[in-house]
């Protein structure tokens, strides 16, 4: 919950808002203009003036945002095909979590003025197509896709966790906490896929390897473009 402190004397028609664990942000409104102060809003990214650190963190957030966007589109494609089956609630639950992950990264990108990858329109179509195509193989096909994608995303988050831990765990406490939480969600999705017969789809290992090669390529491209 935000704590609002009115400051009528200094800022006519203004308020100071305190999001949880954050620096106060001053928002001023008048009849003619809206002025947002330069005080930086809360973010899980630490403030930095080091261009190299900034570039690394921004690249991390860009690719994570792209990954969550792609994952969300995959589940949208699966729901489009399997939305009227008994599998819907399982897929919907995972999709809802991806939406939360995506919205957090969208917020971080916006707060830190990080541009998203230019490849989002491609991930929009490719993600949906992958989800829908895998679901056309049946529930097992959709789950095999889930296992492949979620394993790739978990490994990706694990490599980021390792890098941040090696760099400075105290400096990146909040970022690490968030990525670990998301990684755990992805591992749960992976296990859900296995529990729902992913491995019983014909050509499971081939399908999994092809999808994971695609995920690696998507990660590589989203970090750079
Ligand atoms: Fe996710
Ligand atoms: Fe996931």
Brief digest:
Component of a multi-subunit COQ enzyme complex, composed of at least COQ3, COQ4, COQ5, COQ6, COQ7 and COQ9. Interacts with ADCK4 and COQ6. Interacts with COQ9. The chain is of the alpha+beta class.
Structural key phrases:
binds fe (ii) ion, 225 residues, disordered N terminus, mitochondrion inner membrane, 4 strands, 5-demethoxyubiquinone hydroxylase, mitochondrial, ubiquinone biosynthesis, 6 helices, elongated, 2 domains, alpha+beta
Question: Can you tell me about this structure?
Answer:
The protein has helices at 51-82, 88-111, 120-136, 139-167, 173-195, 204-224; strands at 3-6, 14-18, 25-29, 34-36. The chain has 225 residues and is α+β, with helices and mostly antiparallel strands. It has two domains: 3-36, no CATH class; 51-224. It has a four-stranded antiparallel β-sheet with strand order 1-2-3-4, with no helix packed on it. The two termini are 37 Å apart. Residues 71, 94, 98, 150, 185-186, 189 line the site of one fe (ii) ion (FE2). One fe (ii) ion (FE2) is lined by residues 68, 71, 98, 101, 182, 185-186.
């Amino acid at each position: 919950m935000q704590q609002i402190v009115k400051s009528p004397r200094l800022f006519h028609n203004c308020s100071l808002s305190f999001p949880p664990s954050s620096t106060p942000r001053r928002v001023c409104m008048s009849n003619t203009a809206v002025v947002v102060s330069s005080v930086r809003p809360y973010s899980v990214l630490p403030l930095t003036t080091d261009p190299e650190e900034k570039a690394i963190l921004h690249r991390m957030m860009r690719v994570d945002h792209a990954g969550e966007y792609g994952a969300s589109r995959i589940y949208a494609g699966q729901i489009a095909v399997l939305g009227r089956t008994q599998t819907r609630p399982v897929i919907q639950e995972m999709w809802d979590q991806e939406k939360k992950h995506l919205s957090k990264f969208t917020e971080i990108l916006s707060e830190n003025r990080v541009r998203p990858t230019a490849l989002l329109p491609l991930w929009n179509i490719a993600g949906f197509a992958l989800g829908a195509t895998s679901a056309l193989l049946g529930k097992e096909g959709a789950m095999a896709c889930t296992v492949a994608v979620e394993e790739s995303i978990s490994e990706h988050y694990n490599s980021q966790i390792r890098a941040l831990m090696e760099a400075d765990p105290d400096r990146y406490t909040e970022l690490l906490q968030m990525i670990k939480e998301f990684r755990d969600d992805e591992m749960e999705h992976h296990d859900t896929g296995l529990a729902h017969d992913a491995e019983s789809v014909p050509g499971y290992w081939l399908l999994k390897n092809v999808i994971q090669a695609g995920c690696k390529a998507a990660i590589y491209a989203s970090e750079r473009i």
